[in-house]
Amino acid sequence: MLASLWSVNFIRVNFSVDENTTWLMGRIGISGTVLVFTVVVSILAVGLFGLMPALKSSKPGLSAALKEGDHSSSGGRERSRMRSAIVVTQVVLAIVLTVGAGTMIRSIVQEMVAPQGFDPNQVVTVQLSLPGRKYPDAKSQACFLTQAIGRFQALPGIRFAGATSDLPDSFGPGVDFEVDGQPGPTSTNRPRATRYLISADYSSAMKIPLLRGRQFRATDSSETPLVAIINETLAKHFFQYTNPVGREIRTLGDDGKPGQWREIVGVVGDVSDYLGEDPKKPQIYVPLLQDSTSAITFVLRTTVNPAVLMPAVRQTIKTIDSEQPIYGIRTMTQVLDLQRTGDRFAGEMLGFFTILALGLAAMGTYGVVASIVVQRTHEIGLRMALGAQRSDVLRLMVRRGMALAGIGMITGLVLAIPIPRMLANAYSDSTFENTIIFVISPILILLSAGLASYLPARRAARVDPMVALRHE
Known about the structure:
This protein has about 475 residues and is α+β, with helices and mostly antiparallel strands. It folds into two domains: about 75-115 and about 340-470, no CATH class; about 130-325, no CATH class. It has helices at about 1-15, 20-25, 30-60, 60-70, 75-115, 140-155, 200-205, 230-240, 305-320, 330-375, 375-385, 390-415, 420, 430-460, 465-470; strands at about 125-130, 160-165, 175-180, 190-200, 210-215, 225-230, 250, 260-270, 285, 295-300, 330.
């Protein structure tokens, strides 16, 4: 109970949050239902495993005890088999947990190093929401946007100033779409893309490469023809070997009603919609001045330390509208770090429980082998008196522990085979990497079981034959 209270406090202190995830902290606590369940299971487990030996001891089988001999009176073969079964079960669970944790940790690591499609370094993000009472329509919102970008661009140390409705790695909104010259989609097979509203210099500020055509211009407004930019994946999938620039695309509303056709003026590189997600998904970019929104995030690529410019950035917003609140101003790397906090924490917890499982398996193996050493001390002394070498005794004892670990390992690997598929995400399809996990997990188990077997076996090998022969 004390450990669980400490753990909850540790999570609350070390788990980074922002305005979008603050609510989560209020939900982290000790669940009464889980607590009652844990207490009941613990009492039942203690009672079961404590009561069974007591019941057996209360009904001694004298004839069986005489047959087994005095030196087996501490438990006999039946008790030894029970201990062995428990060890095998511990190893099976350790293998399953290690494979599962390894798969998840591998996915988390791949998320950390996955290609993002943009450069987050030297970028400041400014998040704000324009109040409807002051900016009720697209014209007033576009006016604020144009003013802010112009003033940001004039600041010393700012190379590019842009804006977007949604940052990369933030689960941008998905929309259905259709392309001109292709059969109209039905309600069951509509292609879907992530839709971003961006300003003219957004791609330059984020260093998203332009592959074909042009970027948006400041003149792409509500008074000019509607335009759009698509990403490389959408271009390859729907236009294949033809040039998409000059073709038309339109999105569909939630009710399935098609919007207006937009001319495709450019193709840019793929960007991840969310940390760790496969970046090769269709994406459509629309000018903010043609489809404005009250929720805006400015992105500013700097030539100096981004932290130095933050006060000037705040002051710039205040000079345009002194009452406009800023909900978040941080570097893009800080934004990504916040998004990765949960994954890092999950990886640390998985690693902790994996180590715990390995420790339990090792302790179980150690206990069984140590018990065997005690039970067979007389036999060990007799073997050594008859000429057995210390290395022979060592191998005999270690073989026993490794045999149990081997049985549990094989059973656990069989049970763990479907785990990578069950936990599969965009990067979990690599057969080679799954094979590595299935190789590393047994090695860890065998190393821990080998060490746990070696320690009591070494003690057995050092037994004085004369002392062992007198052992009762």
